[in-house]
Amino acid sequence: MDDGAVLDSVLDCIITMDANGIVLEFNAAAARTFGYTKAEAIGRVLADLIIPPPLRASHAAGLAHCVATGEGPLLGKLIEVTAVRSDGSEIPVELAITAIQTGKTPIFTGVLRDLTARREAEAELKRLNDEIQLQRLRIFKATMRTVQQIVNNMLNTLHLVHLEAAGELPPQTVTAIEHLIKEAADKLKALGDLETVTEKDMAIGQGIDYPGSPS
To answer: Which range marks the domain in which residue 125 is found?
Structure first.
């Protein structure tokens, strides 16, 4: 199997360019990912193919610096950057660049992996987690309404007992009943405050992208 066949069997994109940024190798995965055939890519300036226009000047400056000094901040590191496809759409990619010295000038090989599917999976996982949190809030609110009703019924019963016991029970007993009434009223108010928490409040507090949330 020749070198070209080996490169084309690799799932990651492999792109090689010379010191002038001209594409020397463009494997099958790169063709699938970026929408150019190998014949269309080879011989062209890499920046014109896959670098977003706003980043092309900095790419050219970085390449020139690397060729002149043999050093570059991206060499030998795994980073995440934005690349552009032939249709103009941008995609997130994971990139590792190595430089090989050949004569007086180096050639550069980049191994790229399209992160679109991973990002979509992460976004879906976040959406599901957000939905779970909102469902928990709905259950919490329903529970609070039930407990609030129970405490309200207890409060009404205590009021009746207080009215019926007026003048018939010792003062300390009446005072104890009044204390229970006040305590039950305070608890009822606290439950009411909790129950008024809205799904939007919960969403904003957790950083969830809730419809109508401030951006």
So the answer is: 120-205
